[in-house]
Specification:
Blueprint lengths: L4 E5 L8 E5 L1 H4 L6 E3 L12 H4 L15 E2 L2 E2 L2 H19 L4 E5 L5 H15 L4 E3 L6 H11 L8 H6 L2 E5 L3 H4 L1 H13 L4 E5 L12 E3 L6 H14 L5 H7 E2 L1 H11 L3 H8 L3 H13 L3 E5 L1 H4 L4 H14 L9 E4 L6 H7 L5 E3 L2 E2 L5 H9 L12 H9 L5 E5 L3 H4 L3 H10 L2 E6 L12 E4 L8 E4 L4 E5 L12 H11 L11 H13 L18 H5 L4 E2 L26 E2 L18 E6 L15 H6 L4 E4 L1 H7 L6 E5 L4 E8 L7 E5 L32 E7 L1
Parallel strand pairs: 6-7, 6-16, 8-9, 8-12, 9-10, 11-22, 12-13, 16-17, 17-18, 23-27, 24-26
Antiparallel strand pairs: 1-2, 2-3, 4-5, 4-18, 14-15, 19-20, 20-21, 23-28, 24-27, 25-26, 25-28
Bound molecules: iron/sulfur cluster (SF4).
C-alpha cells in the first residue's frame, strides 16, 4: 500500500509548526505517523513532544459521535431545527443580543469567519467572543493603541538574528518549545547573543538566560518605563524616527520620569536589585538589535495593555522596529488566536481587522455581506458574557471547541451562568468534558486530521490544516453546522458555502474590499483562490495583497503605521501593581500557567500516555521557607482557598517561586484524576481596556490538609 501523507499544522500552540501526517495504519510502525515538516518556516522539521505525540491523540474512546438534545441522540436535522427555532424565538422576543457565540483559538479561520458573519451581519449581535480573550487580548489592544492596527511587526527569524532577546512573562521552553529550541540554537551559534528573562518564577526558560529578573508579580511595566528614560540618558534615542514617524514621545517620557524616577525606586517597585536592573539597562543601551518577546505573563493582567505599551514605547523611542532582529513581539498562546482576530472573532471587532468604530466600516461590511441585520456596537467580552448569561440577558450560547467550565476565571460563576441559560449548545469532538456536561444540545465536531482549513501563527503566517482521516460517526465540520443553522434561519444564499476554500476566498475578498492599503490585514491575493490552489497553499505571512503573493516578512520597514496620520503613538504608562494585593487574611499570591506536555484542559493531550509521564498530576509549587512555616512537606496535600473557591493540590516544595508566591498549572479538571479546577480560585478581574482576566495573580491562603 502506498502511504498517504499530508502536510498539515500542529493544533496546539501559537508557534504553528508544520507537520507531516501519515495514516498510522499505513506506516505499520516503520516510520512515525507524525514528523516535523522540513519545509515549514515555523519549525524547519522540529517538533516538541506534544506535536510528535499527535498520533496518540486521534483515536479517542470518548468521541462525541452523534448530535444529542437533552441527552438523547437525534439526527442532525433535528438538532439544527432545535437550535434555529430557539435562536429565532429569543431574537424575536428579546432581541439579537440574547444570542452569543463563545469560540476558541483552536477552531479554524473558516469556522470563525462564518460564525462572525452569522452573528454580526445576519442575527445582528456582536456577542462573538472567544477563549483567545484569555490569551492575547491585551497584546491586541496594545498594538492597536500604538500602531492603529493589530499588527505583529516581527517574525521568527528576528528571534535568531537579534543580539539581545528580552523574554517577558513567557516560559517558552514549555509553552512555545520549538521557538525556544530555535532561540537556544541561535545562542549556541552566536554565544554573544544575550537572553534576559523577566518573570517572577525561575522557569525552564531561565536555562538559557544570561540574566533572570525575578520581579514582583505584575510589575513588568516599571522595567520598561525605566528603560525608556534610561534610553534618553544613554543617548540611544532615534530622534529622526521619533520626529518623522511617531507622536506623543514627550508625554510618554514625562510619565516614565514620574513613575520610575530613578533606578532605586524602580528596583524597589519590582523587588529586584539595582544591579540587576542596571545590567539589563546597559545591555539595552548597547544593543540595537533587540527583540522583546512577551506572552501571557504580560497579557493576563489587570494592566496588561499598559504593559504591552510600555514595551512598545521603548522600541519606538529607539527605532527598534521594522528592522531585522528588532521589535516588540507578542507570541500568541493558541494555534489560531490570530486567525480569529483576522475575521473579527472578538466581541469588540467587526471583521477583517476593522472595528465597529473604524470610520465607514459598518457600511462597508454590510455592503460586502449584503447583510440584513448588522450589529452596530461592541458585544460582550468573555467574562462579561458569562455574567450576562447568569443575569438572564443572554439566553442562548453556542460554545465551540472550548471548555470554559475549566478555563474561565471564577468557574463557580460559569456554572451558575450555564445552569441558568435557556439553551447551551456545545460543539466538541469529545463526549465528556466539564462543559459538555452542561449542554442542552451537543454537536459532534470533526477534529485535527479530519478537517480542512487555515490557521495563522504568531508571526502572521497562514498555514493549512488538512483533513486525512474520515469523520467518525456523524461528526461534521464546525463551519458546516453554522451554515446549516444560518440557512434554517432564512439566510440560505449568504451561507451557501460548499467547501472551506469558498469561505477562505470570501474572507480574503472582504479583507481587500475597498481597502487600498488602508488596513493592515489584506490577503486579497487569495480572493479568487480555487480548490487546487487552496489545497496546495504554502505557508505565507500576511499581508498578501493582490500583486504580492510572497506575503510580508516584516512590518513597518517604511516607518508608516496604520493610524490616520501614519505615525505610531507613544502611550504614557503608569506601572500598576495587581489589583488584589495580598492581605493578612489572604497572604499568598497564586500564579498559574502550563506544564510542558499538557495543553489547556487536557481534552486531547490527556489521551496520550507519553504526555502524562512528564507531569502526571497537578501540584502547587511552594517556596521551602513558606512550606516550613506552614508545616507542609513535599507531596503532602494542601488546601488553597481564595475568596472565589478552593482547590486541593499536592505540594511541590521548590525554590522556583519566591517566598509568598505559589504556582500551579491550569490543566487538570474533574475529568482527570478528579482534580480541583484551579481557575476556581481566580477572580473575574479584567484589564478594563482588553477584558483579559488577571489569571496570573490571585490572593489565596494555604493550609496543610
Ligand atoms: Fe505544536 Fe507548538 Fe510543539 Fe510546535 S511548538 S509542535 S506548534 S505544540
Amino acid at each position: 500500500m502506498t502511504a498517504t501523507t499530508s502536510k498539515t499544522t500542529c493544533p496546539y500552540c501559537g508557534v504553528g509548526c508544520g507537520v507531516n501526517f501519515t495514516l498510522p495504519s499505513q506506516v505499520g510502525g516503520a516510520v512515525p505517523p507524525v514528523s516535523g515538516d522540513n519545509s515549514h518556516p515555523a519549525n524547519f522539521g522540529r517538533l516538541c513532544v506534544k506535536g510528535s505525540s499527535l498520533a496518540q491523540t486521534i483515536q479517542s474512546n470518548d468521541r462525541l459521535l452523534s448530535p444529542m438534545v437533552e441527552g438523547h441522540a437525534v439526527s442532525w436535522s433535528e438538532a439544527i431545527d432545535t437550535i434555529s427555532s430557539k435562536i429565532a424565538d429569543v431574537v424575536k422576543t428579546h432581541g439579537p443580543d440574547a444570542f452569543a457565540f463563545y469560540l476558541s483559538g483552536q477552531i479554524l479561520t473558516e469556522d470563525y469567519y462564518v460564525a462572525n458573519k452569522l452573528a454580526k451581519g445576519f442575527i445582528g449581535t456582536a456577542n462573538v467572543d472567544t477563549n483567545s480573550r484569555l490569551c492575547m487580548a491585551s497584546a491586541v489592544v496594545g498594538y492597536k493603541r500604538a500602531f492603529g492596527s493589530d499588527t505583529v511587526p516581527c517574525n521568527y527569524e528576528d528571534l535568531e538574528l537579534c543580539d539581545l532577546l528580552i523574554m517577558v512573562g513567557s516560559n517558552a521552553a514549555w509553552t512555545h518549545p520549538v521557538l525556544y529550541q530555535r532561540i537556544a540554537a541561535a545562542k549556541q551559534r552566536r554565544p554573544n547573543m544575550k537572553v534576559v528573562v523577566v518573570d517572577p518564577r525561575k522557569t525552564a526558560t531561565c536555562d538559557i538566560a544570561d540574566l533572570h529578573l525575578a520581579i514582583n508579580p505584575g510589575t513588568d511595566a516599571a522595567i520598561f518605563s525605566f528603560l525608556l528614560q534610561h534610553s534618553v540618558q544613554a543617548g540611544i534615542l532615534d530622534s529622526d524616527f521619533i520626529a518623522d514617524h511617531t507622536n506623543g514621545f514627550k508625554e510618554a517620557l514625562n510619565q516614565a520620569n514620574e513613575s520610575t524616577p530613578n533606578l532605586i525606586s524602580t528596583a524597589d517597585f519590582c523587588g529586584v536589585s539595582e544591579q540587576e536592573v542596571m545590567i539589563l539597562a546597559n545591555w539595552w543601551s548597547d544593543t540595537a538589535k533587540t527583540v522583546t518577546f512577551y506572552s501571557q505573563g504580560v497579557n493576563q493582567s489587570s494592566s496588561g495593555v499598559d504593559k504591552c505599551n510600555a514595551i512598545i514605547n521603548c522600541h519606538l523611542a529607539t527605532g527598534r522596529i521594522g528592522k531585522e532582529g528588532a521589535g516588540p513581539f507578542s507570541i500568541t498562546g493558541q494555534p489560531n488566536a490570530m486567525g480569529g482576530r483576522e475575521v473579527g472573532g472578538l466581541a469588540n471587532q467587526l471583521a477583517a481587522h476593522m472595528d465597529f468604530a473604524t470610520p465607514g466600516a459598518q457600511d462597508l461590511v454590510q455592503r460586502f455581506w449584503q447583510a440584513p441585520n448588522m450589529a452596530t456596537e461592541n458585544g460582550l467580552k468573555a467574562v462579561d458574557l458569562f455574567q450576562a448569561i447568569e443575569e438572564g440577558k443572554v439566553k442562548v450560547v453556542w460554545i465551540m471547541s472550548t471548555n470554559p467550565m475549566v478555563s474561565l476565571p471564577d468557574t463557580a460563576q460559569v456554572r451558575r451562568a450555564l445552569e441558568k441559560c435557556e439553551l447551551v449548545i456545545v460543539s466538541d469532538c469529545k463526549a465528556h468534558t466539564d462543559t459538555t456536561a452542561m449542554a442542552d444540545v451537543l454537536l459532534p465536531a470533526t477534529g485535527w486530521s479530519e478537517k480542512d482549513g487555515t490557521v495563522t501563527n504568531s508571526e502572521r503566517r497562514i498555514s493549512r490544516q488538512r483533513g486525512l482521516l474520515p469523520a467518525p460517526g456523524e461528526a461534521k465540520h464546525d463551519w458546516w453546522a453554522i451554515c446549516e443553522v444560518a440557512k434554517t434561519l432564512g439566510f440560505r444564499d449568504a451561507f451557501a458555502f460548499r467547501t472551506p476554500c469558498e469561505i477562505f476566498a470570501e474572507h480574503a475578498a472582504l479583507s481587500a474590499f475597498e481597502n487600498n492599503g488602508k488596513r493592515d490585514f489584506d490577503i486579497g491575493h487569495f480572493s479568487s483562490i480555487n480548490k487546487d490552489e487552496y489545497e496546495n497553499l504554502v505557508p505565507v505571512q500576511w499581508p498578501v495583497p493582490k500583486g504580492r503573493p510572497e506575503g510580508t516578512k516584516r512590518m513597518f520597514e517604511d516607518g508608516r503605521f496604520f493610524t490616520p496620520d501614519s505615525r505610531a503613538r507613544f502611550i504614557p504608562v503608569t506601572p500598576k501593581k495587581p489589583v488584589n494585593a495580598p492581605t493578612s487574611e489572604w497572604p499568598f499570591v497564586l500564579n498559574t500557567g502550563r506544564v510542558r506536555d499538557q495543553w489547556h484542559t487536557m481534552t486531547r493531550t490527556g489521551d496520550a500516555a507519553l504526555l502524562t509521564k512528564h507531569t502526571d498530576q497537578p501540584y502547587v509549587e511552594i517556596h521551602p521557607k513558606d512550606a516550613n512555616q506552614l508545616g507542609i512537606e513535599d507531596k503532602t496535600l494542601v488546601r488553597l482557598t481564595s475568596p472565589q473557591g478552593e482547590a486541593l493540590l499536592k505540594a511541590k516544595v521548590s525554590r522556583a517561586v519566591s517566598p509568598g508566591n505559589v504556582f500551579t498549572p491550569i490543566h487538570w479538571t474533574q475529568q482527570f484524576a478528579n482534580a480541583s479546577v484551579v481557575s476556581n480560585l481566580i477572580p473575574s478581574l479584567v484589564d478594563p481596556l482588553s477584558g483579559q482576566p488577571e489569571s496570573k495573580h490571585a490572593r489565596i491562603k494555604l493550609e496543610a490538609v
